[in-house]
Amino acid sequence: MPPRASKRKSAPPKSSSITSSDGRSVASKAKTKGMDKVDCLFNSYANSALGMIDPDGIEALCSDLGVDYTDVRILIFAWKLKAEKQGYFTMVEWQTGLKALGVDSLSKLKKAVTELEKEVGEPSNYDDFFSYAFRYCLTEEKQKSVDIESICELLNVVLRAQFRPQVDLLVEYLKVQSDYKVINLDQWVNFLRFCKEITFPDLENYDATQAWPLILDNFVEWMREKQ
Length: 227
Fold this sequence. Notes:
With about 230 residues, the protein is mainly alpha-helical. Helices cover about 60% and strands about 5% of the residues. The strands form two sheets. It has a two-stranded antiparallel sheet with strand order 1-2. A two-stranded antiparallel sheet has the order 3-4. The longest helix has 20 residues. The radius of gyration is 24 Å and the shape is elongated.
């Protein structure tokens, strides 16, 4: 309910706080209008029973954005929203994320999603995104690891574009090895470190005495045997 107007005669408004007939500042009304548009956009994809955008809603959003459901840009969008549950966006996540992007319409969001690739490409952002991609796959309470099949798919989505030779062989190794059924966050983060730091394919600067996970020691040994 809007506040009751005062009966006292007000001083002429200053230019920095122009008010409308209902007593609210123009800036305030514009902000509210923007949030109303953000909320309406959210509601157009949300499952009303759940009060959030569910997998079907995200698929519909992807269709309207002209982006495939498995496209890395959707994962980057989820990262920007700081979405906690895979396949779901809450109203708060949506509002906060779209505010950070400065968008309030589908056309603006379509442009912003494309530009997000540049933002996530910055080194500090990419490390955070890479870790987020793993956490986003933790769909069960207290889950700390992700199965090999999902990890292989995730590597192809988030890392292959930058490090194709490394990822192709790492994925091949993960699929043929039998020592590991799941991957934890430490191993996942070190996959990125390996791609960034180790010369490839000669692996000359790989030192197994350094703090590398055993799975990467095994991968390097497998690679050297292939060579």
